[in-house]
Design brief:
The chain is α/β, with parallel strands linked by helices and 427 residues long. 19% of the residues lie in helices and 22% in strands. The protein is built from nine helices and 18 strands. The longest helix is centred in the middle third of the chain and has 14 residues.
Length: 427
């Protein structure tokens, strides 16, 4: 089965905690703090594997996790770093944030690697906090959490030239005739439901990758038929080879077919019409082909047309030479994220969410919420007087004290954090 899009959850490893430890040796007076740092959490890394052609493996592994870093050890020993998790995907794969559509990885080179989720930093041991005023600190830092989010993994076929056209115009037959690829060929619409790729070599020794892409229909840019599932595979192609059934075997008008396909390519946001296009008039052995070709040239006098009959391998060499010539002068087109800024679409950046907010629950009771509070507060770490002192200092550094005062909090009022209550005391 050809799988070209999967939604997965990636979770990098958390950083290990620093520890509180003191040096205890018979002949070392006042040994001091001796706690080591926690190890860094493992990263989630995607790697392009030339031997893979589908995302089938990810379909059955929707949760990808890296290992956490180890906690620090005594004698100032650093905890082991977490092991990275490497996910192998086919060439041409992109990874996007599921929420924003922002591209975080675009893998186009063999064995190219990209960190998708970064592991958390390890916490510092108590020996880092030694000072002239506090020679025996009894606290250490916790490790930071690793990144976690849902992402969309998409395979966009890595080909130089893409075959486009209505179903049953002869695209699969063309690929079969010019390469060693053997796509399914049938006398019914949508025989090809997944991209097929083959290597083509011209008689003068040049070669390129040709992709037979599933057939377009009217409305594909709005999602009809195979819709975006098809159009996204054209994005990496530098040249478009537009195949037209000039004999009208399926009862369609070739002149109208050309207009409809180009309208769909133009409606898609990825600037597909900026790519050079080769028009191939196929099935020229049919009775109506000559007449339709004359009408086509009269309607589009500036469009060069190559006449072929792919079923008997006639007229293919000039098409391949023309494609190789265009590839030599056409640079790659960048893959854009869902914001579409390179396509001229106006977009606005959302304001950065607040680290925390103060909510007045009832008279003299205030609640503190926010993503930074979620990361910083852990009731299990408040065990000693020094822990509470460090916690209050962190709250003051984050600006929570001033924010409470601005919200109307006074001496003796109650402050709630994660369901736990504290008294607000003006010092």
């Amino acid at each position: 089965m050809f799988v070209d899009q999967v939604k997965v959850n990636v979770k990098a490893g958390n950083g290990g905690n620093g520890i509180v430890s003191f040096r205890h040796e018979k002949y070392v007076a006042y040994g001091g703090p001796f706690g080591g740092d926690g190890g860094k959490g493992g990263d989630v890394i995607f790697e392009a594997d030339p031997n893979m052609i589908t995302l089938m493996d990810l379909r059955y592994h929707r949760k990808i996790k890296a290992t956490p870093g180890e906690n620090g050890k005594t004698k100032k020993m650093h905890g082991a770093n977490g092991q990275d998790t490497i996910v192998k995907v086919p060439l041409g794969t992109i990874v996007k944030h599921a929420d924003t559509g922002q591209i975080v990885a675009d893998l186009t080179q063999p064995h190219q690697q990209q960190i998708v989720a970064h592991g958390g930093r390890g916490g510092r041991g108590n020996y880092h906090f030694k000072s002239s005023r506090n020679t025996a600190p009894k606290y250490a830092e916790d490790g930071k959490p690793g990144e976690e989010f849902d992402c969309i993994v998409e395979l966009r076929v890595l080909a130089d030239v893409g075959l486009v056209g209505f179903p049953s115009v002869g695209k699969s037959t063309f690929l079969d005739a010019v390469s060693r690829a053997h796509p399914e060929i049938g006398d019914y619409p949508f025989t090809t439901r997944a991209p097929n790729v083959g290597v083509v070599e011209t008689k003068d020794g040049r070669s390129f990758i040709l992709a037979d892409l599933p057939g377009l229909i009217e409305g594909a840019s709005q999602g009809k038929g195979l819709g975006h599932e098809f159009l996204k595979h054209i994005e990496r192609c530098r040249v478009i080879l537009h195949v037209i059934d000039m004999g009208g075997e399926e009862g369609r008008d070739p002149v109208q077919d050309y207009k409809i396909i180009n309208d769909e390519l133009g409606s898609y946001q990825m600037r597909l019409l900026e790519r050079p296009q080769i028009v191939v008039a196929n099935k020229m052995d049919l009775d109506a082909a000559k007449e339709n070709l004359q009408r086509f040239k009269a309607t589009y006098p500036d469009v060069p047309v190559f006449e072929t009959c792919t079923i008997i391998h006639e007229g293919l060499d000039p098409v391949l030479r023309k494609a190789a010539d265009l590839l030599a002068s056409t640079p790659p087109f960048p893959i854009m994220d869902d914001w579409g800024q390179d396509a001229g679409v106006t977009y606005t950046l959302e304001a950065k969410p607040k680290d925390f907010e103060i909510i007045k629950v009832e008279p003299h009771v205030f609640e503190v919420k926010g993503p930074k509070i979620d990361r910083s507060f852990d009731i299990t770490k408040l065990n000693t007087e020094e822990d509470y002192y460090l916690f209050s200092q962190r709250m003051r550094y984050m600006g929570i004290d001033d924010a409470l005062r601005k919200a109307g909090c006074q001496d003796g009022d109650t402050v709630r954090i994660h369901g736990f209550e504290f008294d607000f005391i003006e010092s």
